[in-house]
Amino acid sequence: MLRLAVASAFASLLAVANAHGGAMHYIIDGEVYTGNWDDLHNTEGSIQRQWNWGGVTKLNDPYLACGNNGVPHTNSYYAPIVAGNTVTANYSFDTVSESIGRAWTFGHPYGAMLAYMAACPEEGCERVDLNAPIWFKVWEAGLLSGTWAKGYWAMKDVFEGAELDISTPTSLKPGKYILRHEMLNLQTGPAQWFPNCIQLEVSGSGDSLPSAEDLVAFPGAYDKDEEKSFTVKGGSPWFYVTHGNDTKFGKDD
């Protein structure tokens, strides 16, 4: 469980205007995949569900699952990946965006990053109920050092232009999956969630899937226990790697 209290110390921090957004492209098993944000007008197809620049601020918002509006591309497809390999998400964009009128990088250095996966039926992920309890945590990254308000968060690396690497479970059963990854901005208060979802076709020799008790729903996974405090649970981890050390939990131990 990763506990994140939205402290008043962040009220004095300067908000970064128009610094919201999501993953612009992905590198998966050596292939590059373009994202699907709403002003890209991507007509070629995408593995990514559509999103816009605004964050989700309500924990009961159905867009907490895959962003606004979270629908698959008309020509959606799946990125092949071998179980255990890494999905690399890039949060920078060198071309001027219509929405913000300039080149862009994700502008929030304070907050947690988490990733979940959901298994889909053989026919695919396009019609899966994103708000059902289908999600299991595979990765998280939070405060690496220092105090909560002035410390070094893993998100700062992305803020400074680094790519985000998300490991997939090596024991995962082959099949179609949705990978949901999110940035939880705690800089400006109230908290803002920026989720993205992509479709993967997993191969490999694994045969594992999480049990029902390891699955969570969005909304529903996160509890607001106080007006300015959130307990980010995400359910009992089936598998995840904590950024900043080699600690692993779950099936891949």
TrEMBL record:
Which InterPro entries does the UniProt entry name for this protein? AA9 (IPR049892), AA9_LPMO (IPR005103)
Q: Which residues belong to any copy of the Auxiliary Activity family 9 catalytic domain? A: 20-228
- Keyword Transmembrane helix recorded: no
GO terms under cellular component: extracellular region
Q: Which residues form the signal peptide?
A: 1-19
Q: Which domain of life is it from?
A: Eukaryota
Q: Identify the cofactor(s).
A: Cu(2+)
The record's EC number reads 1.14.99.56
Please state where this protein is localized: Secreted
User: Which Gene3D superfamilies does the entry link to?
Assistant: 2.70.50.70
Q: What is its main location?
A: secreted
| Reactions catalysed | [(1->4)-beta-D-glucosyl]n+m + reduced acceptor + O2 = 4-dehydro-beta-D-glucosyl-[(1->4)-beta-D-glucosyl]n-1 + [(1->4)-beta-D-glucosyl]m + acceptor + H2O
Keywords per UniProt: Carbohydrate metabolism, Cellulose degradation, Disulfide bond, Polysaccharide degradation, Secreted, Signal
Biological-process GO terms, alphabetical:
cellulose catabolic process
The entry assigns this protein to a family as follows: Belongs to the polysaccharide monooxygenase AA9 family.
Q: What is this protein called?
A: lytic cellulose monooxygenase (C4-dehydrogenating)
